[in-house]
Design a protein that fits this description.
The structure is a homodimer. By secondary structure, the first copy, chain A, is α/β, with parallel strands linked by helices. The first copy, chain A, is built from eight helices and 15 strands. Chain A has helices spanning 3-17, 22-29, 33-45, 65-84, 100-108, 122-128, 153-159, 185-196; strands at residues 19-21, 50-52, 55-57, 92-96, 115-119, 134-138, 141-144, 149-151, 166-169, 173-175, 179-182, 201-204, 216-219, 226-228, 247-248. The radius of gyration of chain A is 26 Å and the shape is elongated. Chain B binds a DNA duplex through residues 3, 22-23, 31-35, 37-38, 53-54, 68-69, 71-72, 208.
Chain lengths: 249, 249
DNA sequence: TTCCTATTTGCAGTTTTTTGCAGTTTTTAT
DNA sequence: ATAAAAACTGCAAAAAACTGCAAATAGGAA
């Protein structure tokens, strides 16, 4: 049996099963395990597979793309949350929508700060339980599995009873022409109600989501009092928004 | 099985479920717990996950707090939950309180079962989001940080509007003389309201909590239609309860 | 063909890694 | 405070990897 033939067989096995064991290959090919080991080492050197103790695994096998990109964006989101914190006054009433940027805000809330937080988002509520001085009030209702927050008429109804000092809106797309948009109709209804119930509306928005729009509209840019991104307020990307009556941070 | 493969499996489990338990992994992979511990330690060193006492959690946003009480006595609680599942009929309306036994029930709910679940408990709601056919309705209100569920007048008020087929009560102490008791007054108010709103009341109770009482009373034993423990219904410990009109399972 | 050389292959001995176990220490929940 | 669960430690057996070497093989060149 030719060496090239053997290596082709090994590559094929790896691609089919995502993994191989040296002993298996040695058995089925009828060669010594050392030979297989040497073949695998060579293939590893040529970046055709990944050699591991006892065998080899496919190169694409262990990729967790979401993990890395998420960690990457997390720094931006932390940064945004940090900028948002000074807007929260002692003993104020805060309204928070869902989204990971808001989650970061909930996580970074100064422990000494006394606040009352209303939220329809399960992850946000859970995160706030860890805060020693936050009074958490959950706006109940039918839970949307995608958005992990309360939606529906009763939620909107409950929100209408609230008068908050400040509202933090996460996860949304902002565009000069289309305003604030979402791809989930039910979430739009909730956000509309939140905006109506709050004296001041702050949008936490990672710059990737600027200048893009989705199907459903939450509000015009005018309805936003403050836009916080991870960028410098003077950044070119934010230029189009400076014409509106929006505080850029 | 290759070490690399095992670690891949662990990473995948963590990524899917946000958390893992060393013993679970050891069981399902058929290796010793020490091996899993070493794997997890290595993955932690490589910043692929975060090792915690008893298991590991995902690095990303972890809304599911890894609570050690849910690995405490988990086998018994799983067993109790298994016994409770047949009581839930297709298309029924279920009311669930908090507690780790109920959490186990939520986790083990058959995926094909269509149910509407009302709950004031954040962990339960979050767990149910993973269920494909459960409609989840959260009873909102002021959140108790200890019990991780909605308490207060508005929650009681909302509960009073519900008519559920069956109610599952977790975390409580049951005693022949004192009935069902709790150490949290606010939780008692919620449970009272839940019992009133349900046609049938089922108590999921680990035997350790039998024959003990706490400060505040939820109801008499009569109010319970069915008591489920991890014991055999004929067990001596359950004898005192058989005089009441309670189905023992 | 025959001889020569470079490569490949298998083998034996040694080193390293992996894994489960037992005993001890630490952590956790009640 | 106490008892149970989990973590840590060192150890030993087993598996795998590495090393050097010699035999086998292939491919030319004479």
């Amino acid at each position: 049996m030719l060496k090239a033939e053997r290596q082709q067989y090994i590559l094929n096995e790896v691609s089919v099963h995502s993994r191989i064991q040296l002993s298996d290959i040695a058995d089925s090919l009828g060669v010594s395990i050392d030979t297989v080991r040497r073949d695998v080492k060579e293939l590893d050197d040529n970046k055709k597979l990944k050699k591991v103790h006892g065998g080899a695994i496919s190169l694409g096998y262990n990729t967790f793309p979401f993990n890395h990109s998420d960690i990457f964006n997390r720094e931006k989101k932390s940064f945004i949350a940090q900028k948002a914190i000074p807007l929260i006054k002692e003993n104020s009433v805060v309204l928070m929508s869902g989204g990971t940027t808001n989650l970061e805000l909930a996580r970074l809330l100064p422990p000494k700060l006394h606040v009352t937080v209303f939220t329809p988002s399960l992850p946000i509520a859970l995160q706030l339980l860890a805060h020693p001085n936050a009074e958490v009030i959950f706006i109940g209702g039918k839970i949307s599995k995608d958005a992990q927050l309360s939606v529906g008429a009763s939620t909107v109804q409950e929100l209408s009873q609230i008068r908050a000092d400040i509202c933090f809106l996460g996860t949304g797309y902002l565009d000069v022409n289309h305003g604030l948009t979402e791809f989930d109709y039910e979430v739009v209804q909730i956000k509309k109600a939140m905006i109506k119930s709050s004296r001041k509306n702050v949008l936490l928005c990672i710059s990737d989501k600027l200048n893009s729009a989705q199907r459903f509209k939450t509000c015009d840019i005018d309805a936003i009092d403050c836009l916080i991104t991870e960028l410098d307020p003077e950044d070119q990307i934010l230029k189009p928004f400076s014409n509106f009556d929006v505080l850029l941070k």
